[in-house]
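ESCALATION

Customer reports they have been waiting on this structure for their group meeting. Please prioritize. Original submission:
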Amino acid sequence: MLNVEELEKKLAELNTRLNEINDEVSNAYNELNELKKKLNEKRSQLSAIINQLNGKRGELNELKGKVRELVEKRNSIIDHLKRSKAEKDEVTKRITQLRDRLKNLRELLRELEATGGRVQDKDKLKVLIEKLEFEHDTSPSDLKREMEFYKTIVELGKNLERAETLDELRGHIADTARELEELVKKRAELVNDLKATYEGSYKPIKDELAALKGKINEVRNAIGELKKRRDELKAERDELKRQILAIYARIKELKESKRQVIDEINKNRLLLVAARKSALAAERRRSEEAVKSELKRKAMEALQKLERGERVSLDELMGLEDSEDGTHE
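Update from on-call: job pushed to the front of the queue and completed.
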């Protein structure tokens, strides 16, 4: 037979457990909301870091583009400097050759002038030779004068040839000196151009490249720090996701437990109703039996009184009648 007290006690325990589960579910949802709030904050932080990272990457690409442009300019300037230096070296080499040649020509001129004595003017020698040849052709001559004439003409011819040689040598010296002077001037121009190009073009680009390299290193370091922070935020975000999923799983388990407890409560409520009905029916039967027993007792007493000829009250007669009705039933 179902025990009402036990069922009521069990229902109380089940309701207590249901309240506990409801509290756990409520706490789980509160914790879930807090974690979602933290997750949204982490996502906002991560988005901000990613935006900064993209900005730094764009800045890095821009700096690299400037470096490429400057490197092209620098390489062009270096090519120009190399060509100018190569030309300067060639000019310097030619200057050295011309100086050696000029030195040798001047030494040769000094030697010729030292060994041959004073040399008359070439044009004067030509005029003198023409005059002597004219006089020889127009004046009577004897053997002695003829010999002197040829001797003089030969000597003058040697002097003329020597004078022409010296003039030619002096011409070479003058041409070489002019070429040397022009090359020295050209080399000075090349040196000035090299210096101006280096100071005015190459060095500023070199300095700017060094500055850009420093900025690039700074940006790369910043990118490294941002990547590190991004990875930390991702790890924190993933941990929050893991915790949220765990809470969802716990909530699901709690809801299943709640469903089972509610089912158990409903089941026990039905059992309690049935138990109470059964108890009431039993109580009615016990009460009816007690009434019947009392009526039967009173009827027996009334019957005994009648048999003894004693006076019987109306209630006793009614009890006797009820007892007989109950017996018939």
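Sent to customer with the following note: The two ends are 28 Å apart (CA to CA).
Escalation resolved.
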